[in-house]
């Protein structure tokens, strides 16, 4: 049985006070928490330094801007999942392939939703799995629609490591693939994250026209031969378009 970190628990006790109180004085925090004065003082200093709390000119403490950032991230991700799910389900019912929803987290992509009820062969993809932005169709479609400055920075700094037989490990080829993705409006991958699997992905944009997610169709490589790619690509792009429109995106 593990023991809880006392400092972390007490810090959370202080932060939890602000669920029911918009602002609190130093003494009010001491009275409500029951934590010794010197301990409260040290914790408030640390929480303020981290941006979790802020102290106004009236000497009252309030939740800091960091929570605004966290709240925005959580709400936006939940909104994308909620909005995307029925579109994903419809696409899955049409093609019987795994459908994934991916968002960017710094220089990685993270899978936040997946539907593969009809698929007989389970793939590597799973909710919570991460992959670098250069590897796999859904990760790379996010990379491809970032600003040119962000793309150049990423390509310049990234180390391209192989995950499977088809992983892109050459920066020149990566740049060519990014440009191709921009022209086509979708990305395709074969054996990039796991051998003998393929995926086709399209970008999802928000009301500002910013890339916020990607949706992909994935399955065994034999299902993604030349004659099937155009059909699958159009279906994925249409699903991405529907989700983007529900997020407020309007194509110019």
User: What is the number of E strands?
Assistant: 8
Low-confidence parts lasting 5 or more residues at pLDDT below 50? none
Helices, by number, come to 8
What portion of residues belong to β-strands? 15-25%
Distance between the termini: 58 Å
C-alpha geometry: elongated
What is this structure's SSE topology?
Elements: H1 6-16, H2 26-33, H3 37-49, E1 53-55, E2 61-63, H4 65-95, E3 98-105, E4 108-115, E5 130-132, H5 137-144, H6 148-157, H7 171-184, E6 187-190, E7 197-205, E8 211-220, H8 229-246
Antiparallel strand pairs: 1-2, 3-4, 3-8, 4-5, 6-7, 7-8
Helix pairs in contact: 1-3, 4-8, 5-7
Describe the structure.
This is Transcriptional regulator, IclR family. Keywords: DNA-binding, Transcription, Transcription regulation. InterPro entries: GAF-like_dom_sf, HTH_MetabolicPath_Reg, Tscrpt_reg_IclR_C, Tscrpt_reg_IclR_N, WH-like_DNA-bd_sf, WH_DNA-bd_sf. It comes from Bacillus badius. Residues 5-65 form the HTH iclR-type domain. This protein is α+β, with helices and mostly antiparallel strands and 252 residues long. 45% of the residues lie in helices and 19% in strands. The chain has 8 helices and 8 strands; from the N terminus they run H-H-H-E-E-H-E-E-E-H-H-H-E-E-E-H. It has helices at 6-16, 26-33, 37-49, 65-95, 137-144, 148-157, 171-184, 229-246; strands at residues 53-55, 61-63, 98-105, 108-115, 130-132, 187-190, 197-205, 211-220. The strands form 2 sheets. A 6-stranded antiparallel beta sheet has the order 5-4-3-8-7-6, with helices on both faces. It has a two-stranded antiparallel sheet with strand order 1-2. Helix 4 runs antiparallel to helix 8 (229-246) and helix 5 (137-144) crosses helix 7 (171-184). The longest helix is centred in the first third of the chain and has 31 residues, at 65-95. The N and C termini lie far apart (58 Å). The mean pLDDT is 89.
